[in-house]
Structures are given as structure tokens and as C-alpha cells.
């Protein structure tokens, strides 16, 4: 069996936070194909990745798709003088997932059976409220109660108001962006009030997880975390500072009581070594579509196991992200929960051949080969974004 093509599918979809998904299909000369995903947070990044993927596809044509480890390193090392991070690793991730999908289909086994077999029957999830619905206190309460009643025992949100625009009309920050790392006292109070309301509504048995999206400088992150600790008995504070500086993370870590979560913007196992060695995080949350795929997520999980640190894969994208992370976590002893971008995953139904089996806050994987889902090719073709 030989690889014949690597094809990016950039798809318009209202189900995405950003209005589009980026899937990757690897095809072979025997008619078996596999699916990966690489959705990022900006249109610019998605389009740049499409270009890189096409070039990688040329280099992979004729290769044996069963040589997953070899192909991982072949792509990764091709970008070594660019640092082998960022876009390079994200392309590796998508292709790696697709290769595991192919391998499972060829052998007639789900991927988790190829990674050592399951250590659990289902995957516990944590999820997000739809904050667009937070138009009043009553609306917040309704949304949180819906999540709790669905059986989820963990929910995550970003309580911090975005800072609007500067005097010249330019955006002061983007959702995952950073400008000066500050937060006004008024907005700090609003964040604390929202967190307290959500804790009161969810009750004491639901984990409350705070996502700062790496937006704050050191003193602001410390101040905000302490404020939320007091307001809502939070269970983790995620990405308090931009991920480029582990020294900033260390300073925050030393001054707050809440557990620290880190890792969605960590690329490969090598990025996680100093975090673990220096005890900078209580939870590690790699994204299978960004950190190096199934191959690397399994290795990162084993690395964390040696430090007795739980793994909780990140997700803010499409169905391949969810099921790929779940396939690995079926085999990982030190697993906390898998993130899903919304609590009702019916939003993916139009993208895949069967709905994901979610009940009582957990995902059950099928015994079908590979990832266990197929993309809806008719939908992809009808909603593909054409690139010049």
C-alpha cells in the first residue's frame, strides 16, 4: 500500500467557533483513506496550513502509510531549521491522525486497540457553556443547569470581559491574543461575579475550570486568579500568561493556590519536559491536532504518567479532534477528562456518518476500525472553501 495524496479540506461551517474547519484526507492506492484535522483559530493560519499540507503531500507520495513513526519524523525534521514547531507540527498532527485511521482500517481494529488496549469503557468529558447566551443572570443559570442536568461534572469558561477597542478603533485584543496583559478592576469584579454565580448554580460536585487564554501579564494573572479563587472555588486556572514564557508561568504558579493547567499551545513532548521538570502545572492539556497527533499525544501522556500528572486533551474544533483524543485517552491511565467545545455535540452530525455517542457526560467509542467515524463527503464538497 502506498500513499497517493494528502488533501486539505477547508470547510465553511456554522458549527465552528471561527466559521470554518480544516480537515485532512490521506488517500492510498488501495482505496483506503484516513482523516485528520488541524483547525486553527484564524483564517490566515488555516489557509497557510493548506499550502504547507499540499507540499508535504508531494513529499509523502509513494510512502508506506504503515510507517507512522518514520513519516512523523520525516515531516518533522523537514522543518528543523524553522524550529519544527507551530505550523510544521500541526501539519504533522493532522497527517499522523489520518495514518492511524488508515492503519486501524487495514487491521480492522479501532485505534485504541493498537495503542495497548482500553483501560476504561468510556471517556469522561468536560465542556463549555455557550457564553453568547449569557445575556442575564437568569440566562446564565439556565445554561449552567442544562449542562449539569446533561451529566457533565466539569465545565470551563473564560469569565474575563474583552477590553473593547482603543481610541483609534483598533481591536485591543483578540480571543487568543495579547497586547498589554491588563484587566480593569471593573472587569475583574464582573469576572468574579460571573464565576460565583456559576459555582452557586453548578453546585459543589462540578469542577469549575477557568480559561485565561494566555492573555495576562504576571501581576494581572496573579490578581485575577486570587479573585476567582475567593469568588468561586475554582478547580483550575488555565494558561494564565502567554505560553512563550515559562518563567512567567512559574511566577504565577508560586503566588496562587489554584491548580494550573497548561499545554494546548505546547508542540511535541519536548515542550512539556521543562513544564513537568519544574513542576509548573497540575494538569497537562495537549491538543491532538496541534501537538503532534496520536503518536505524540500517547508519548506526552506517558511522560506525564511518570510525574503523576493527569492529562486532559484540549479541543476547540471539529469531530476528528474529539475522537482522535478519545482514542488515545482510552489507553491512558492518568486521564482526567476530555474537553469538548460545547456540551451538545449534535452540532457535528452533519459532518460525520453517525452521531457521537454522548450520554451522562461521557463519550462512548465504537469498536469500528480506525477513528470509528467517516466524514460526510457530500457535505464537505458542498461547503468547501475554494482557495486560489
UniProtKB/TrEMBL annotation:
Residues 137-259 form the Mandelate racemase/muconate lactonizing enzyme C-terminal domain. Pfam families: MR_MLE_C, MR_MLE_N. Gene3D superfamilies: Enolase-like C-terminal domain, Enolase-like, N-terminal domain. GO terms for molecular function: lyase activity. SMART domains: MR_MLE. The keyword Lyase applies. Keywords: Lyase. This is Mandelate racemase/muconate lactonizing protein. It comes from Mesorhizobium opportunistum (strain LMG 24607 / HAMBI 3007 / WSM2075).
Amino acid at each position: 500500500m502506498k500513499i497517493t495524496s494528502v488533501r486539505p479540506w477547508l470547510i465553511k461551517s456554522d458549527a465552528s467557533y471561527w466559521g470554518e474547519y480544516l480537515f485532512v484526507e490521506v488517500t492510498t492506492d488501495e482505496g483506503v483513506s484516513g482523516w485528520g484535522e488541524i483547525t486553527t483559530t484564524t483564517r490566515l493560519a488555516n489557509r497557510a496550513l493548506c499550502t504547507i499540507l499540499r507540499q508535504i503531500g508531494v513529499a509523502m507520495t509513494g510512502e508506506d502509510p504503515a510507517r507512522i513513526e518514520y513519516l512523523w519524523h520525516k515531516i518533522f525534521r523537514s522543518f528543523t531549521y524553522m524550529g519544527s514547531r507551530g505550523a510544521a507540527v500541526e501539519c504533522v498532527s493532522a497527517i499522523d491522525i489520518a495514518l492511524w485511521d488508515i492503519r486501524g482500517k487495514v487491521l480492522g481494529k479501532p485505534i485504541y486497540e493498537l495503542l495497548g488496549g482500553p483501560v476504561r469503557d468510556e471517556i469522561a468529558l468536560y465542556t463549555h457553556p455557550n457564553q453568547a447566551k449569557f445575556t442575564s443572570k437568569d440566562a446564565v443559570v439556565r445554561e449552567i443547569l442544562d449542562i449539569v442536568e446533561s451529566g457533565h461534572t466539569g465545565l470551563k469558561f473564560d469569565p474575563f470581559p474583552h477590553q473593547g477597542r482603543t481610541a483609534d478603533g483598533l481591536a485591543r485584543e483578540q480571543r487568543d491574543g495579547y497586547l498589554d496583559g491588563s484587566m480593569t478592576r471593573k472587569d475583574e469584579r464582573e469576572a468574579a461575579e460571573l464565576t460565583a454565580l456559576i459555582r452557586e448554580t453548578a453546585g459543589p460536585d462540578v469542577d469549575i475550570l477557568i480559561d485565561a487564554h494566555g492573555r495576562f501579564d504576571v501581576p494581572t494573572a496573579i490578581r485575577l486568579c486570587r479573585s476567582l479563587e475567593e469568588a468561586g472555588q475554582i478547580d483550575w486556572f488555565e494558561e494564565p500568561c502567554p505560553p512563550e514564557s515559562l518563567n512567567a508561568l512559574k511566577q504565577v504558579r508560586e503566588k496562587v493556590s489554584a491548580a494550573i493547567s497548561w499545554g494546548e499551545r505546547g508542540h511535541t513532548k519536548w515542550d512539556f519536559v521543562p513544564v513537568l521538570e519544574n513542576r509548573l502545572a497540575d494538569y497537562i492539556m495537549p491538543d491532538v491536532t496541534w501537538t503532534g497527533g496520536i503518536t505524540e499525544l500517547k508519548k506526552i501522556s506517558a511522560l506525564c504518567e511518570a510525574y503523576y500528572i493527569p492529562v486532559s486533551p484540549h479541543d476547540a474544533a471539529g469531530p476528528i479532534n474529539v475522537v482522535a483524543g478519545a482514542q488515545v485517552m482510552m489507553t491512558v491511565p492518568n486521564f482526567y477528562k476530555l474537553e469538548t467545545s460545547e456540551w451538545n455535540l449534535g452540532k457535528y452530525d452533519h459532518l460525520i456518518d453517525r452521531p457521537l455517542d454522548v450520554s451522562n457526560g461521557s463519550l462512548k467509542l465504537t469498536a469500528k476500525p480506525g477513528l470509528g467515524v467517516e466524514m460526510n463527503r457530500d457535505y464537505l464538497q458542498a461547503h468547501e472553501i475554494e482557495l486560489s
